Amino acid sequence: MTGQGHASEQGELGTVSVEVRTVNNRGLKCTIRVTDSLATLESKIEALTRSLIHRGTVHLNVSWHRLPGESLPSVDTRVMQAYLDQLQQVETADNLNTTVDLVTLMTLPGVIGSTREDRCDDASLWKFVQGAIRAAIANLDEMRLVEGGRMAETLSTDCVTVSDRLNRVRQIAPRAVESYRNRLQGKIQRVLEEHDQKVQTVDLLREVQIYADRVDISEEITRLDSHLQMFADVLDGKEAEMREPMGRKLDFILQEMFRETNTIGSKAADAEISSHVVEIKCAIERMRELVQNLE
């Protein structure tokens, strides 16, 4: 599903800005971009994103800006004092009389360069960053919820179409089986008469019934109706696990619906049933195109 969301958080650690965009995809593909200061948290950011978004191509951008002045270089007085103590020890031991140049001293390793970023605890930073990510994805979900509502309306309309056509097939099926049985019996009778053969009526009816049972689609109609009801329940959120993503489950149900419809079309020896089967297939195919992008 398509959508976008933005969020930013401000606090003692500075400002975190998050932008997330999604486009349709049958699976889940994440592209994460973070500033260099958040490189150590990239794996956590992707894991959190995958736990909140389950389908689509996701583009997530996260940036962190510290408070003004906190990114400036600072002097580590402890390191500087350590250098001074060592110089004084050397001066005393060798009876030297030297003047300490502070400018030169500040160029020594470790004296300058310790910043707020260096001292920031990853756990505190992660807690700060993930709040902004969750807020951005919540905004994304609000936008996708609107799109999902429109898709649900379209799917419900196609469900009604399938149900109406299936009811017509259910009404026609007994008549179609009886018509097929009569045609088959008539053909067999004519062939027997042409070859001057006679068989027991009971034997003839038994063989005719065996072939007639092959075009009985009552079981397929019942299963298709059950799948259709299950699809409607999942779409309406009536399933016990309604909080879980429904897109893949709906896709699986539609596969079963299409399989039963194919069987009905191949078994039914009736032109009117075949026409309804074509309409059902068209509706199911429209539903599959939508469901593949539904989370």
Describe what this molecule looks like in 3D.
The protein has about 300 residues and is α+β, with helices and mostly antiparallel strands. It has three domains: about 5-70 and about 120-145, GHMP Kinase, N-terminal domain (Ribosomal Protein S5, domain 2, 2-Layer Sandwich); about 75-115, no CATH class; about 145-290. Helix content is about 60%, strand content about 10%. The protein contains nine helices and four strands, in the order βββαβαααααααα. Strands 1-2-4-3 form a four-stranded mixed beta sheet. Strand 1 (about 5-10) and strand 2 form a beta hairpin. Helix 5 packs antiparallel against helix 6 (about 200-215) and helix 8 (about 245-265) packs antiparallel against helix 9. The longest helix is centred in the middle third of the chain and has 73 residues, at about 120-195.
